[in-house]
Each structure stands twice: as C-alpha cells, then as structure tokens.
Amino acid sequence: MRATEPPTQSVGAYAAVHGPVEAADRIRAGCAPPAVLAEVAQPEPDLRDDLAALEAGHARLLTPEDDDWPNAAAHDLAASGTGAPLGLWVCGDPQLGVLTAGPVAVVGSLAASPYGEYVAAELGQGVADRDIAIANGAGFGVEAHALRGALSTSGRGRCLVVLACGIDVGYPADHGPLLREITDSGGVLVTEYPLGTKPRRTRGYARQRLVAALSEATVIVEAGRRSPALAVARTASRLGRRVYAVPGPVTSATSAVDRTTERHADQAYTWLISSR
C-alpha cells in the first residue's frame, strides 16, 4: 500500500494470485509483469511509523484475510476493472459493523443550497432512524449535513467516512470535531491511504469508487455537471448498485443531472417521500 497509488488493478490482481509476500518479493526482484511494476513507486518505502502506529493501537490495518474485510465490495471493484483496495486503514468501531450493514451513500455538492442542506440532513436522519449507516467522504455541503443528520438521532446514527488521505491527517481540517464525533458514536473512518498521506484531487476521485462499492445504494442530493459526487453515482451504477437523484429546482446549477442521475430522479422522489 505504501509503494502504490490507488487504484492498483494490476498489483491487486497479482497479489491475489501469488499472495502479498511472494508478490512483494517478485516486485523487489523486478521479475513481476511490466504492468505491475508500472504501478509501484521506487524506492522501497519506510514502514517503521506504520508498524509503530499499529502496535500502539492508533489505527487498524484491515486486509483481505480478515473476517471484517468487505468481500462483496472488493470483488465487485476487481471484477469491474475499477481496482479493489489492497488493504484498508480503519479508525473507530473495531467490529466494523457499518461495513457489513449495507450503508446508504448520501453525496452531493460542496456548495450546497439551503434546500440541499435541509434534504441531506433529513435523509441522514431518516436513514439513521432505520438503523442504516450513512456513507460518504465527509466533504462540505451535502455530505457533512447528511452525517450530522445521522448523528442527531439520539446516538443511533452510524456513519462510514471514506477518506482521501491518511487516517491521521484529519481532512477537511474544519471537520475534525465531526470526524471525532463519528468515531465516538460507533462509526468508522476508512482509507486505503497510509498514515501521513496528504489529500489531493486524484485521491478524492479514487476514494469515490470505495464510497460507491461499500454502499448498498447512492443518493445524489445536489450536484453540478462536473461534481465529484457524480463519480460515485457512475461507479455505483457500474457495480449494479441502486442510484437515486433528489429532484431540485430546474433553475439551480447544483440540480443539474446527467444521464446516470436523470433516469433515477422519479425513484428518488418516491423513496424520499416513503422514508419520511
């Protein structure tokens, strides 16, 4: 995980065939296929800080051999050619209940309108009231309001946040208290990026595929045509997950839709009304 930049389709497939130890030995020796070597950074990374953090209990490293590994999500990502994670750094509930209880991803615009913020919070609370977890990347706007809506349900709300950085980085910085409240309330923070990894745009897009894969359904509350949230919808659709789009004002740029979200808008309206 230290030597690669997700998504790593070739390295993941190679490790699945040979096992991680033998795969690493072959990569070190330079005898792995060119596609695998192209996904590996040089020189070999220093793992001492990672091992110290694991020993101290600051985080948990989940691997495909663990009972808590999200097998369905990893399998679907690998089968679709999207790239399954090699492992997951986790902070929060050690039982990872939210990973196995079919979360609903609620995502959307960072610059949400008051309408979008209200609907996101209502969805978060309504889903949490049914003992279903909310999943997203804890971004500003729609995502943060959905998480806060879930947390407002008398401690019942559980959240799964997929980070585009190391588990110890705390990004967005303004959401430090929110992330701590999530882990204190039985939720989890998950990332495929090692400790200390800084966020950047490409990692944000790579993260979206995990949000989609770990969720049973995705709801787009508001999103412009270039919104990163639409990457979640497209991946979810590609993986065969349900995708919904909340109808919004036709005059609003954050209620723009593409073909992926447009065909699901009526379903989202029906789902939204029935969940109230």
From TrEMBL:
<feature type="domain" description="Smf/DprA SLOG">
    <location>
        <begin position="61"/>
        <end position="256"/>
    </location>
</feature>
<dbReference type="Pfam" id="PF02481">
    <property type="entry name" value="DNA_processg_A"/>
</dbReference>
<dbReference type="InterPro" id="IPR003488">
    <property type="entry name" value="DprA"/>
</dbReference>
<dbReference type="InterPro" id="IPR057666">
    <property type="entry name" value="DrpA_SLOG"/>
</dbReference>
<protein>
    <submittedName>
        <fullName>DNA processing protein DprA</fullName>
    </submittedName>
</protein>
<comment type="similarity">
    <text>Belongs to the DprA/Smf family.</text>
</comment>
